[in-house]
Amino acid sequence: VQVELLTTGSELLLGHVVNTHTAFLGRELFALGLRVGRQVSVPDGPAIGEALAEALGRADLVIVTGGLGPTSDDVTREIAAELLGLPLEFDPALLAKIDGYFTQRGRPADPLSRSQAMVPRGAFVLANDVGTAPGLALEAQGKLVVLLPGPPRELQPMWRDAFVPWFRARGDRPPLFEKNWCIVGIGESRVAQRIEAPLRVLGLPEIGYCARPGEVDLRLVSGDAALLERAAAVVRAEFGDAIATERHETLEGLVVRLATARGWTVATAESCTGGLLGHRLTNVPGSSAIYRNGWITYADTAKTSELGVPAALLAPGGPGAVSGEVARAMAEGARVRAGADLAVAITGIAGPGGGSAEKPVGTCWLAVASARGTEVVQKILSNDRETFKQMASQTALDLLRRALQIETSV
Amino acid sequence: VQVELLTTGSELLLGHVVNTHTAFLGRELFALGLRVGRQVSVPDGPAIGEALAEALGRADLVIVTGGLGPTSDDVTREIAAELLGLPLEFDPALLAKIDGYFTQRGRPADPLSRSQAMVPRGAFVLANDVGTAPGLALEAQGKLVVLLPGPPRELQPMWRDAFVPWFRARGDRPPLFEKNWCIVGIGESRVAQRIEAPLRVLGLPEIGYCARPGEVDLRLVSGDAALLERAAAVVRAEFGDAIATERHETLEGLVVRLATARGWTVATAESCTGGLLGHRLTNVPGSSAIYRNGWITYADTAKTSELGVPAALLAPGGPGAVSGEVARAMAEGARVRAGADLAVAITGIAGPGGGSAEKPVGTCWLAVASARGTEVVQKILSNDRETFKQMASQTALDLLRRALQIETSV
C-alpha cells in the first residue's frame, strides 16, 4: 500500500506552526503496518487540489490534514469530493451534532457550520469530540482518502478513536503484533546499541524508537507473535527497572494508576519546572484521588515561607537553592504540609541565565520523600529551557513510579 | 520567485523526528521576501532524486535538507550535482577543514569524510561551524539549489551565518509586508465573519487564521504597505481590546514583558489547571523577575490551608469549590500570602467526571486581584480535559494582561 500525507495550511509554510502531524501520523501508520512514502505541505488555496491530484496518481491511501473548518480558506472537503467524483450531500444529523457543540457551551450556533455538515456521498464520518469539524474517509476509484482536521488536539483523538477502529475493521490485511516499552533515563542511541544486535540475531526486522525528553519509547512490530515474545524477553532482560511501563500509558498516567491502586497521595514542590509536574499529573483523569497539593516555590523566599526550607541553606555560604539539601527540605516540607504519603521536589537551573562553572545550566536536584525516608538525586539535563523542564518533570515522575513500584508489582 | 523545500530523511516519515526545518526556513525565507510554495519530505534513497527533479521543474529556488553526511545513505550532493549537470570536484582545502574538526576534538579523522569534500563545480560552500558536512549553493540552468545538513543545530547557524549574507549580496527582491494579531476569547469563525467582508472591500487578498485553544492568530500579508495599514486599522477597530498583542509573542511572554516593564510581581492559585499556568509563565526566560509563588490547591482542604479560603464556602450548602466566591478568595489569599502586586486564581471542572446539571464539565471561575480590587469572571470552556486546561490558563493570562494594560500602553 502506497501512503502519502498532504498537510495543508499557509501557517505551516510561513513557519507560524511546526508540522507535528507528519511525525504523529508516521508513527501511527507504522503501527498499522504502513509506511509513509511522501509528505507534502502546500498553502491554503488551489495548490491543495494540485497536490491531492498528484498524490492520488501515486498512492493508494492519501491522508490530508487541515482545511475542514468553516471559513473561506477551508476547501479540502470540496476539493477531495470533486477529485473523487463524489457529490456533496447535506447531513442534517451532522449539523445537529455541530450545533449541539455550541449550545452545550451556551453559545449561539454558527451559521457557517453548515459547510461542515456537507458529506461526500458514501463517506464514513469520523466524529470530532473536541471541535466542530468532522473528519471524513472517502473511498472511490480504488483509493482511500482520509480528511482530518488541522488542530493536533482534534486530529489525534479522532485518529485513535474514530479512524483506527474503522480502518482495522476493514480487515483486508494480516494482523500485526506490537509491543511497547517506555524506557526512562537512557538515551536513544544507547538503547539502540544495546538491543539491535540481539534482536537482529532473533530475526526481528522492525524496531521503532521514539525519543522524547527523558524517555525512549521502544516499539517492536511483527507478524509472528512467538518471535515477538522472544524479542520482548530480550528487551526486559536488557533494561530491567529502567522500563517504566509496557502499557500505552504516559508516565504520569502510570504514577496516578499506581498511587490509586495503593491508596497513596502525592504532593509536589516545584521550583525550576514551575508547575509542569502538577500540570502533567492533573492531565490524568481521576488524579484528584491522589493529588491534593502542589507548591510552585520559584523564589527562595517562597521555599522558606511555604515549605519551611531553612533560610540558612539559601543564604550566602550555604549550599544554595539548587542543591541536594534544598531539594530534600522541599520534599520533606511538602510531604508534612500536605499530609501526603509521597512528595517529590525539583530545583534546578533551566537557563538561559543563572548558570555558573560550578552549577551549569541544566543542573537539577530532585528528592522524593516517603515514610521510608528521602532519596536525593542529581541530574545534568538539557541546556534548552523547555527541554530541561520536560526532562526534570520526567525524572520526578520516574522517581515517583519507582517509589510506588517498590512494594507494588505493576 | 517560486520556492520549494525538500526535507529528506526516513526518520521524518517514520515520525522519529519532528520536522522543524519547514517552520524555521519558512520564517527565514519570509524575512527575505520569499514564500515557500511547497514542502516535500521523502525517505532516504532514490525518492530524493525524483522529488528534486520534480521541484526543479516547478521552482526557481529549491532548498534541500539532509543527506550530506558521510554514510552510504547520504546521497543528496551527488544527486543534485547530477541533475544540474555539474561535475563533482575534490576540494583539498575543504577536506583539511573537515579533518580539523576531528583533530580539534582529539579524535582521529574520519576516512569517510572525503565524500564531504566533493564540491559540484562552481558551487558556493556554506561553512559548517558545528559539524562536518558543509552546505552548498549550486547555480545552474537558471535554478538555485541550496543543500543544507539535516541536524537543526547545524542547519540553523549555517543558514544565518553563511547562506543569508551570501544570498543578500546577490541583489534585492520586492519586500512582502505582514501583520499579526493575537485575538483572545473570540472563536475562529466569528473572527472571520467580522472582518472578511470589510477586508475584501479594501482589496486585501491574503487572510490567514491559526486557531489555538482560547485564541485566534490572525495574519494579513500584502506587498502593498499602505493597503496593509488600512487593513490593520479595520482589524483594530473591530476587535479592540480583544487584541492581546500585535507582536510575535505568546500570551505568557506578553504578561512577563508587561509585568517586568511595570516592576510588578504575579502570583498564581490554580485548582483545575493543576500548575499549567505556572508552567506557561515559567517557560518565559526572565520570568523569575516577576513570578515567585504559585499554589496548586487541587483539593478543598488545600484551598483552605494554603490560601485561607473560608471553609464555609466549601461546606455543603455553600457555593462550592467551583464558584466566584472561591475564585475570589483564592486570588486574594494568594496575593496576600505572596506579597504580590497581582494574583490570579482558576477553579473549574475539567472533566470527564465531576460535572452536574448546574455546573457542567467546562465550567470555570477565574479571579484577578490587585490593589484596585478583585475581578471575577465565569467561562464555559471545552469539555475536553486538556483543551479545557489550555483555555482556562489562556483566560487567566488574558485577565493578567488586561490588568497590566489598564495603565500601561503596550
Main attributes?
homodimer, 410 residues, alpha/beta, 6-stranded mixed beta sheet, 5-stranded mixed beta sheet, 14 helices, 40% helix
Question: Could you describe the 3D structure shown?
Answer:
- By secondary structure, chain A is α/β, with parallel strands linked by helices.
- The first copy, chain A, is built from 14 helices and 17 strands.
- Chain A has helices at about 10-15, 20-30, 45-60, 75-85, 90-105, 150-170, 190-200, 225-240, 250-260, 275-280, 300-305, 310-315, 325-340, 385-405; strands at about 5-10, 35-40, 60-65, 90, 120, 125, 135-140, 145-150, 175-185, 205-210, 215-220, 245, 265-270, 290-295, 340-350, 365-370, 375-380.
- In chain A, strands 2-1-3-8-7-6 form a six-stranded mixed β-sheet, sandwiched between helices. A five-stranded mixed β-sheet of chain A has the order 14-13-15-16-17, sandwiched between helices.
- In chain A, helix 3 packs across helix 4, helix 7 crosses helix 8 and helix 9 packs parallel to helix 14 (about 385-405).
- The two termini of chain A are about 40 Å apart.
- At the A-B interface, helix 1, helix 2, strand 2, strand 10 and helix 10 of A face helix 1, helix 2, strand 2, helix 7 and strand 10 of B.
Short overview:
The first copy, chain A, is α/β, with parallel strands linked by helices and 410 residues long. Chain A has helices spanning 10-13, 21-31, 47-58, 76-83, 92-104, 152-169, 188-202, 225-239, 251-262, 276-282, 300-307, 311-314, 324-338, 385-405; strands at 3-8, 36-42, 61-65, 88-90, 118-120, 124-126, 135-140, 143-148, 177-184, 206-212, 215-222, 243-245, 266-270, 291-297, 342-348, 363-370, 373-380.
